[in-house]
Structures are given as C-alpha cells and as structure tokens.
C-alpha cells in the first residue's frame, strides 16, 4: 500500500530527528547555501551562454575567408603567402561546395557571426537577399575612391551586377559563359561545329545511338540546376525570364525554347537526365559518350585532364549556336567577393579583395586558365595563351554577345528557378509544354508580385 | 561507528552538539531536514543537465513555434510581423507541395519499415541458432549501419547511375533493360526505399534477435511435440510472444524513417528531384528554410511535422501498452 505524501514526509522528518544531531548536521544544507549553489549554477550557465567575443579584433586573429571549392579559390590559395606578408596577418581559407557555402552563410549570418570576414558569393543568386538582410558591407567608396584599383576596368555586365540598392556590395572575380563542347572527330563529316541550334539538334539526333549508350547531346536536366544553362537557349529564341517586370515564361518564344531544349534531351540525351546537373552530365561527355555538351566554359579543363577524360584529343570548343534571335548566351560574374557586415577585420578584408582582384592578379590568374572580369586582362593576348585557341575565341565571341544574367533577377532566386524549371522538366520528359508553361507562368506572375513587395528595402 | 537509530538514545556528545532549537543553527540559520536537503541537493545536481536540455530542446522548440506565427523571411533576425495561424493555413491548403510531401513521407516510411520488419525478422530467425561463422555474418551485417547516410547516398548514386553505373551492367547480364532508377520520376521513391531497407534492415535484425533471445523455449518445444510445423510454431508461438519487441522496433525505426533526409538530399538534390518526386516533409521544410528563406512557413511545416510524429508515436505506444497488458 502506498503511503500518503504528508505522512511520508512526517515519517521522514521523525527519522531525521531520531538520527540525532551528528547525522543531521552532516546532511544539513541551509537555505542560503542552497540558494547560493543554485545562483552559482544558473549564473555560470547564463554567463557561458551569453558570453560574446570581444567587439574588436584580436591582433593575432586570422583573416577568415569562406569560398567555393573552385579553381579560382585553389589558385588564389597558392598566392596567399604573398598577401600574408603584405598585411602581416595570417589568412584562413575554408572551401565548401556552393550549397554548403550558401547554407553556412544563412546559419552564421542569421546569428550576426563575426567569424567570417571575406565572403565568396554568387552575385546573381544571393546578393539581393544578403543585401536586404544587411549582411554585405557597402564597398562603393572603396572601389570608386581608389584610382590604382581602376573599377572602370571591370567589364560592364559583371560590374553592373555588383550593385544592389545603389551600393557596390561585391567585386566579381570569376566570369562564365556557356561553351559548346563537341567531338571534332564525329563532326568532321558535318563540316565542324554547328552554327545554329537547329543544326545542332539535327546532328544530335543523327549521331545518337541510345541503345548502345551513345548520346547526341548531354546537358543539365534538373529542374533548378538546368535553368542557368537553358537561359542562353531562352535568349537565343528571343525570350526572357521577365519582360517589363512581368513574367516572360509563358510567351511563345519561351515555350519554343522550352520545347527545343526538352526535345534535345528527350530524343538525343541520356536516360535519367532530369536528375542531372553539372556533376552528372560532365562525366558523360568526358567519357566520350556524347557528341555535344553545353555548359560553363570554366569547366573546360576537365576535358583536358587525362585522369578523367577520354576526349582530350577530340574535344572542340565553339561559341553558343544561334537561335531564331541570334546567338545570345549569358556572360555572368559567377563568383564575387564581398565583406561580411559583422566582420571585425573590414580593413584587412578590403585589402584582400583589392589584392585578389587587382589588375595584376586577374591577369596572373587568367594566364593560369581562370577567366576574370577585367577588360585589361582580356585585352592582353598573353593571358589567353593558357586556353585552347578555339576556346579563347569562343569565350571572346560569347562575351561580346552575352547578357549579364542567367536566372531571374529576384530576391528568392531558388523559388523562381523551381517555377521556371517546371516546363523544362515537362519538355525533357516528353510531355506537352504549353499547359505546364501556362501554369508556371501564372505562378511566376504571383511570385513576382510578392517578390517586388519584399524588394522595398 | 554505529549510527544512532530511533530506538537508541542520543549519546552525551551528541546531546552537547545538538542546537538549542532543532530547526536553526547556533547562528540562527534555518536548518533543512535530511529529506529536504536531499531533495534540494538532487535538484541542484540535476539543474545543469536540466538547463542544458531546456537550452538545447525547449528553447529551439519555443523559438520555432514563435517563428511559425510570424511572416519571417530572408533572415531570422530581420523585422517580422505576427500573422497568427496564417502559415499553418497556407501549409494545410497547399496541394502543390505540402500534401504530396505528407503522402510521400507516409508512403516511404510505411513501405521501408514494413520491408525492414519482414526481412529483419526473417534474418533474425535464421540467426537465432548458433552456426559456424555467425560472428562474421553479424559483423558484415553491421556495415551498412556504420556508414554515414551521405556516403551511402553517393555510393548508390554511382551504382545506380543509368549510363555509367554497375547496376544496369549487371541487369544486362540477365536480359533486363537498363533502368533509370534515381533518374526516373516514378522509380525514385521506391529506389530510395530499397536503399533505406539495405541500410536499416540490420538494425531491425539486431533488435528482433535480442527479443528472440529472451523468449522461453518450452512453448515452442511443446508445440513441436504436438506436431506443429515450422510455420505454425512461428505464426502461433513465436510471433505472439515477440509482439512487444516488434512494436518497439517499429516505433524506433518508424520515427527514424519519418525523419529521413540525408540520403534523399544526397541522391535527389533540393526539392527531392525535378518533379519533387522524392520530396518528403523534411526535404520540403529544408528547402523552405535554405532555398527559399521562408522561415515562418518552414517553422509552421516543422511544427506540423512534429505533431504528426508525436501523434504516430502516441498511437503506437498505446498499441504497445495494450499488447503488454
């Protein structure tokens, strides 16, 4: 039988009294000392939870750079000792994949973290959002007030993309255009690389032997991942993501671009292409299983690497083929550098950006095969010697014809790409595009209204 | 030294040391009884752990619930407005993403856990009796459990690659045409279920094996004497006795399967694939948070997801309780 609590307590008290003063004193704890113990515990917990670092930088603290795992980052890392000698501070560089980098910024900067100084960002993907959140420092006076830095030397399209809310918030360091990678050996009977998209489709269909694992064309097919490469098809068909601030993905030009890209991958592409982004599509061409591949020109070195490529001697490079509206590829600043608004080392952060994007460093890196954003580097023939001649020529032509964006220019780029990519997937799966495009067009129109409202900052 | 008990009178020394008033010290401080002091000391010792739990579980939970009632967008610490239950209404009326994600979560969990239970039970029955090489078999069985989910995802992505993967080469030897596996809208979720089965069946096996080892042998021996065959002994003797273990294993694995994220994200990417074909509630909430930065709506989805899991656990626990009774 269970004893009632009051009786239990009384019995315990009697036992305690009966135990005598020695035992009593041994276990006694005064209220004051109990209170002191609790207060000390709570205080320690609160202090440890709330403790924040000093608001001024430790003189020995390293300059922390968060960057994408990219050839640019790997190349600049080799030159870092020069910069460390210049500023007298150690540099710590952390390389992550694009998604990891973006998520790290979201987690850390939501907590106003000071342990990031220089941020490698995608001007077209995150810049508007990060500026709206107040995470990127204003660099306007720094870039414009330094004659030796020569801000005007940056190409127009990348330079314009560095500005959000009338402030320069990033500096472009890597630029990107689409390149047409093709098999020279297979294209010889057709007179070389196709000049138009229609020619490319015809040859792709003719060369495709899908039952035996050979494909006419390979490219990105993931809903969101394919949007950036598809943008050049869209522009070359005369369309755009938005027209006068309204959705442009339901126009006849956009539908034609959706259908064309869908047919190319559906009839000449590999199986499972809707699950393919750069990482899955690139190896297929590198292993000699496709005749054509359109993707960023920055990845060309993969096809010249004997470790992963079987097409070293047969790969050719050509400008983006012309569509009904001509050849209008994108020419974008794929990666830029910015400064964390909460950084305690903003002066040294700017020194790093100034050094890493100086005319001399951009020329050096471009000579190593990493295309930069400075016109002076592009005008210097010596910096292009690292590239295969036909690639250098295609980059030059694409840069001349290119548009400065490859995705919708909105705050929520991720959601916008998901909407825009839906008809693309329908086309690739061989479904009828117009109804899906009409649905996506309506969704995108609603989205743009909401996004414009959020843009008032 | 013998401790005084209630039947013994206090010694002279003890009487001398005793305070004038039993409730206070000589300096007038209040003295706690042994029971009171013991109870307070217990709380004092527990308080750091309780504080940690409050900080790591209760605070994020309250923060998430609070966020779910706001229009938080872009940054968590940005200005936001309380909008009541609007996010919950938006989620519950979203037939494009939310409800399909709920359905996929249930489909994935029920399918994977059912297969794992059947296979786990079959393997446990096979391994019930000692045999030569049992330790090696058990060690090999543990391997999928030890690998990280992302590594497993990448491994299977390579194996199942429609063009370069080894799976289609092997299927070709037996005359089966190449499959798209994770590249297909219709095959993705079943393929992910099979990967989950490959990884987690060993855990079910170990749990059920532990349950089997506690069962008495006499009822089965009696049935054997009565002429019951192997299936009858399993169906009418072993399974009823093992029911509690099976239900406990179902709760543990079921809750874990509901929360599956890493493998799906590693193989299908954001949104669970191009047609959202593998987008479960967890993947959807992750996308809302990190791809769309819609923190208010993402929090509402997570609160609903948590309630969903709690409801399932309560239901299964009740069932377990009834079985035990």
UniProtKB/TrEMBL annotation, chain A:
Pfam family, any one: SBP_bac_1
Biased composition, class Basic residues, residue ranges: 1-12
InterPro entries: Bact_solute-bd_prot1 (IPR050490), SBP (IPR006059), TAT_signal (IPR006311)
Protein origin, superkingdom: Bacteria
Region of interest called Disordered, as start-end residue ranges on this chain: 1-24
Family annotation (PANTHER family): ARABINOSE-BINDING PROTEIN-RELATED, DIACETYLCHITOBIOSE BINDING PROTEIN DASA
Entry protein name: Extracellular solute-binding protein
UniProtKB/TrEMBL annotation, chain B:
Gene3D superfamilies associated with the record: MetI-like
Pfam family for this entry, one: BPD_transp_1
Organism for this UniProt entry: Occultella gossypii
Biased composition range(s): Low complexity: 1-13
InterPro entries, per the entry: MetI-like, MetI-like_sf
Domain ABC transmembrane type-1: 102-316
SUPFAM superfamilies: MalF N-terminal region-like, MetI-like
Organism taxonomic ancestry: Bacteria, Bacillati, Actinomycetota, Actinomycetes, Micrococcales
Protein's name in the database: Sugar ABC transporter permease
Localization, UniProt: Cell membrane
Stretch list, region Disordered: 1-25
Transmembrane residue ranges: 43-63, 106-127, 139-159, 295-316
Membrane topology: Multi-pass membrane protein
Family indicated by similarity: Belongs to the binding-protein-dependent transport system permease family.
Alphabetical UniProt keywords: Cell membrane, Membrane, Transmembrane, Transmembrane helix, Transport
């Amino acid at each position: 039988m269970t004893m009632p609590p009051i009786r239990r307590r009384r019995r315990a008290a009697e036992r305690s009294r009966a135990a005598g003063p020695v035992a009593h004193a041994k276990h006694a704890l005064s209220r004051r000392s109990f209170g002191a113990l609790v207060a000390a515990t709570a205080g320690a917990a609160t202090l440890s939870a709330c403790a924040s670092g000093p608001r001024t930088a430790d003189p020995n603290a390293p300059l922390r750079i968060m960057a994408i795992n990219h050839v640019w980052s790997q190349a600049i890392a080799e030159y870092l000792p020069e910069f460390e000698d210049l500023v007298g501070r150690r540099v710590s560089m952390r390389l992550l994949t694009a998604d990891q980098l973006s998520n790290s910024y979201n987690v850390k900067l939501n907590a106003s973290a000071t342990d990031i100084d220089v941020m490698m960002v995608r001007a077209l993907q995150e810049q508007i959002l990060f500026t709206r959140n107040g995470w990127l420092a204003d660099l306007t006076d720094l870039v414009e007030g330094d004659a030796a830095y020569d801000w005007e030397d940056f190409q127009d399209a990348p330079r314009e993309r560095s500005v959000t809310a009338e402030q320069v918030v990033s500096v472009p360091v890597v630029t990107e255009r689409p390149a047409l990678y093709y098999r020279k050996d297979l294209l010889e009977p057709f007179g070389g690389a196709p000049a138009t998209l229609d020619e490319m489709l015809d040859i792709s269909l003719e060369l495709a032997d899908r039952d035996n694992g050979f494909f006419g064309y390979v490219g990105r097919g993931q809903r969101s991942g394919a949007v950036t490469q598809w943008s050049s098809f869209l522009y070359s068909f005369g369309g755009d993501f938005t027209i006068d601030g309204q959705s442009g993905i339901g126009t006849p030009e956009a539908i034609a671009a959706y259908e064309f890209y869908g047919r190319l991958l559906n009839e000449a592409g590999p199986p499972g292409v809707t699950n393919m982004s750069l990482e899955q599509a690139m190896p297929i061409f590198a292993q000699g299983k496709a005749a054509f591949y359109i993707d960023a020109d920055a990845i060309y070195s993969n096809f010249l690497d004997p470790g992963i490529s079987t097409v070293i001697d047969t790969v050719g490079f050509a400008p983006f083929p012309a569509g009904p509206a001509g050849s209008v590829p994108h020419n974008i600043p794929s990666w830029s550098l910015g400064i964390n608004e909460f950084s305690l080392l903003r002066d040294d952060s700017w020194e790093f950006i100034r050094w890493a994007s100086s005319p001399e460093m951009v020329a050096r890196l471009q000579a190593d095969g990493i295309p930069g954003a400075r016109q002076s580097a592009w005008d210097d023939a010596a910096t292009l010697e690292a590239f295969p001649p036909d690639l250098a020529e295609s980059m030059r032509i694409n840069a001349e014809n290119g548009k400065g964006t490859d995705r919708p220019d909105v705050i929520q780029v991720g959601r916008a790409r998901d909407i825009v990519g839906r008809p693309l997937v329908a086309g690739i799966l061989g479904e009828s595009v117009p109804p899906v495009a009409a649905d996506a067009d309506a969704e995108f129109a609603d989205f743009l209204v909401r996004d414009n409202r959020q843009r008032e900052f | 030294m013998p401790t005084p008990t209630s039947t013994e009178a206090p010694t002279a020394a003890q009487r001398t040391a005793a305070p004038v008033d039993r409730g206070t010290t000589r300096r007038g401080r209040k003295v706690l009884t042994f029971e009171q002091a013991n109870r307070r000391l217990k709380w004092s010792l527990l308080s750091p752990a309780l504080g940690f739990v409050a900080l790591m579980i209760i605070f994020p939970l309250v923060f998430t619930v609070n966020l779910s009632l706001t229009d938080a967008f872009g940054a968590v610490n940005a200005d936001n407005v309380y909008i009541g239950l609007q996010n919950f209404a938006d989620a519950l009326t979203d037939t494009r993403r939310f409800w399909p994600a709920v359905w996929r979560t249930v489909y994935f969990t029920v399918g994977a856990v059912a297969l794992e239970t059947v296979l786990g039970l079959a393997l446990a029955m096979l391994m019930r009796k000692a045999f030569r090489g049992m330790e090696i078999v058990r060690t090999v069985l543990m391997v999928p459990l030890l690998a990280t989910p992302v590594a497993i995802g990448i491994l299977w992505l390579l194996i199942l690659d429609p063009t370069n993967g080894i799976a289609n080469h092997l299927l070709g030897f037996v005359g089966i045409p190449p499959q798209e596996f994770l590249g297909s809208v219709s095959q993705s979720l079943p393929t992910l279920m099979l990967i989950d089965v490959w990884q987690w069946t060993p855990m079910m096996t170990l749990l059920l094996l532990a349950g089997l080892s506690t069962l008495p042998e006499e009822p089965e021996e009696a049935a054997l004497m009565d002429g019951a065959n192997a299936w009858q002994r399993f169906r009418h003797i072993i399974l009823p006795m093992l029911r509690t273990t099976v239900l406990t294993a179902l709760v543990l694995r079921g809750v874990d399967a509901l929360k599956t994220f890493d493998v799906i994200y590693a193989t299908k990417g954001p949104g669970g694939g191009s047609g959202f074909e593998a987008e479960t509630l967890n993947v959807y909430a992750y996308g809302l948070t990190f791809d769309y930065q819609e923190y208010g709506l993402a929090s509402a989805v997570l609160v609903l997801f948590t309630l969903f899991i709690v409801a399932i656990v309560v239901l299964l626990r009740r069932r377990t309780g009834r079985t035990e009774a």
